[in-house]
Automatic annotation (TrEMBL):
Ranges occupied by TPR repeats: 77-110
Residues forming coiled coils: none
Protein name: Tetratricopeptide repeat protein
Record key words, sorted: Repeat, TPR repeat
InterPro entries found in the cross-reference section: TPR-like_helical_dom_sf, TPR_2, TPR_rpt
Gene3D superfamilies: Tetratricopeptide repeat domain
């Protein structure tokens, strides 16, 4: 196999984006492993790999990658939101709430704001909100 170079890493990153969009998260992870191996400081590749782990229901690896991204970029609202979803999916609501709120504080996107208030008790809608 030919040696990888920066151009092939860019190609692998773009191909991993396409695989994730095509619902092949394991294929995306496989491509991103070599990219991150060569460029461990590449936060974009780590964030994409975290998303792929999440999509593949590999919650612990997703959590670790999102946390690494947040160590480098503590103001990354998307990483907070995605980490919160990871905690939520893993049944860790207290940690999820914290990161949903951080995401909403950093970027008041409607989905972040809505998620930050997800803890309504007994499934009741709050403040006149309609239930799904």
């Amino acid at each position: 196999m030919p040696e990888k170079n920066p151009e092939t890493h860019v190609i692998d990153f773009r191909a991993a984006e396409q695989l994730l969009a095509a619902r092949d998260p394991r294929g995306a992870v496989k491509l991103l492993d070599s990219v991150i191996g060569a460029h461990p400081e590449n936060t974009a590749a780590r964030l994409l790999r975290a998303r792929a782990f999440f999509a593949a229901a590999q919650l612990r690896p997703a959590e670790l990658e999102f946390e690494l991204v947040l160590e480098r970029e503590p103001d990354n609202a998307f990483a907070h939101f995605a980490l919160a979803r990871t905690f939520q999916r893993a049944g860790r609501p207290e940690q999820a709430t914290r990161h949903f709120r951080l995401a909403a504080a950093l970027d008041p996107k409607p989905e972040y704001l809505q998620a930050a208030r997800f803890e309504a008790r007994d499934g009741e809608a709050r403040d006149g909100e309609a239930r799904d």
